[in-house]
Design a protein that fits this description.
Largest interface: A-B, 41 and 48 residues
Order of helices and strands of chain A: HHHHEEEEHEEHHEHEEE
Number of domains of chain A: 2
Oligomer: homodimer
Strand order of the largest sheet of chain A: 4-5-6-9-8-7
Structural class of chain A: alpha+beta
DNA sequence: GAACCTCAGTGTTCTAGAACTCTACCGTCC
DNA sequence: GGACGGTAGAGTTCTAGAACACTGAGGTTC
């Protein structure tokens, strides 16, 4: 196999339309294309990327599915207002990693300390009222933009171990699994709509009182014991839940 | 314009790949294709529908986005396992009837009129920008307490019929089904967190600016045509979404 | 027995275009 | 002034095919 071929292959590994989409994503993220701006028309774009209309359209389709752009028949293609969608049927992690969506996800550790739990947390973790819990506060960044604020509450015994791990690098689940042998098999999640408090708003870089999702999740290990209580705040303008419904049998 | 042309046009209104997707949907729903079954390969399917590979693939893309099929490179295209159970449960309580919970549920009709749709509505119902839609505004009461405000938008032709029904008594779905023969088989729902506007807050008996869920749902009939667009507001203090998660296999 | 190769079958990417539809806008005609 | 109709510009649908890439299975080699 010649060097040229090998090279072509390596480049060719990522389909053309993915690379085009990536280029456009960068233009949008980089600010070269502001929200609401109109892109060049499809024929122009196709020409400038030296591909067919169909190929270009595949790239646009990707971006549209990510809600980065919207296309309007007869009018043009526009940069959409920023927001992230979550398909609840895919049962990935609501509160956690969105990396499956191809975005650049980072986590910033805001704090880790022992503290007194509020009542909901104590109840969820089945702890006595005056116990102390280990609180882990993390900010999730998607493309360098704060996406969610996550507070994880751990029972004291587990907290003692976790506190030694490098949480800026290692996901909490991995610490639990590989260092403590705790595997989470089940979780119960409750999502409500709330207004952000001052502290949460500050960390998330938005205004107090803004609408947000609040997700509370209790994770259990194989033995059924509660292991983690997560409370996550996600500003309402950055997130959406979507579902596909099928009413096969009963039309009730 | 000749009759033939007019007819062809009317039929041609629905793109070929939408009709193909609909045919496949029926095969899946009808049981001709059981979950896990492999579909004919794409070239075969294209031939049997007398279209190009590209066109067929557009149809498959639709179905994949609805989670009705999954495609696996090198292996084939398969009917997806129905992950519906969870869905149906949720559906009831969401935008509509909470009666399953044993509460006393009532509906108050606030208004019914023709109006100009906003863009999201027009797009969802695939109407031209200047069309008019029939708007139905209803308040759901649980134990005499306002629970949700629901605005339903219907295409003009359907609205003409619905306007004659006694909507204070008859559920909209029944009107559609028994008077118009329209059965809703599929819907797409998007939930976001917003702050209530003044009007919505007044109708719901709470304060403007309060946090709320906003659910937008597009319902489709058996032919795949959008039939109703629902926009529902539920104050955040009156409602929660809950889910039970199981991470059996992959701990990913 | 394990590692490697090859091959058939299947999904994926891409080309090069042609024809169609939708929207906004701008006249013209009553 | 309002209704109608044409038009430019933009997105959408579709054809006909060629080449590529992934998976599993079976054979071959060591």
């Amino acid at each position: 196999m010649s060097g040229v071929t090998a090279n072509a292959k390596r480049i060719g590994r990522v389909p053309r339309y993915h690379r085009i989409a990536e280029t456009l994503r960068e233009r949008i993220r980089g600010g070269a294309l502001a929200p609401g701006a109109r892109l060049d028309n499809q024929r122009e774009l196709a020409k400038s990327f030296a591909v067919t209309l169909m190929t270009l359209r595949q790239a646009l389709e990707l971006l549209e599915r990510e809600h980065l752009i919207t296309r309007r028949h007869g009018l043009g293609t526009f940069v959409a207002a920023p927001s992230i969608d979550y398909d609840i049927l895919q049962l990935r992690r609501f509160a956690g990693d969105l990396s499956a969506k191809g975005e650049h996800v980072a986590t910033r550790l805001l704090g880790a300390r022992f503290a007194a739990p509020d009542r909901r947390v104590a109840e969820a973790l089945r702890l006595p009222a005056r116990a102390r819990v280990f609180v882990l506060e993390r900010l999730r960044l998607v493309d360098d933009h704060p996406m969610s604020l996550q507070r994880s509450f751990l029972p004291p015994l587990i907290g003692d171990e976790v506190v030694r791990a490098d949480l800026a690098r290692t996901p909490l689940h991995q610490v639990l699994e590989f260092k403590l042998g705790v595997v989470i098999v089940r979780a119960h999640e409750t999502v409500s709509a709330v207004r952000l408090g001052r502290r949460e708003a500050r960390d998330l870089g938005c205004h107090a009182g803004e609408a947000a999702f609040e997700s509370e999740r209790i994770s259990h290990d194989a033995g059924g014991a509660p292991v983690v209580f997560d409370r996550v705040f996600i500003p309402g303008d950055r997130f959406r839940i979507t579902r596909e419904l099928h009413y096969e049998g009963a039309t009730s």
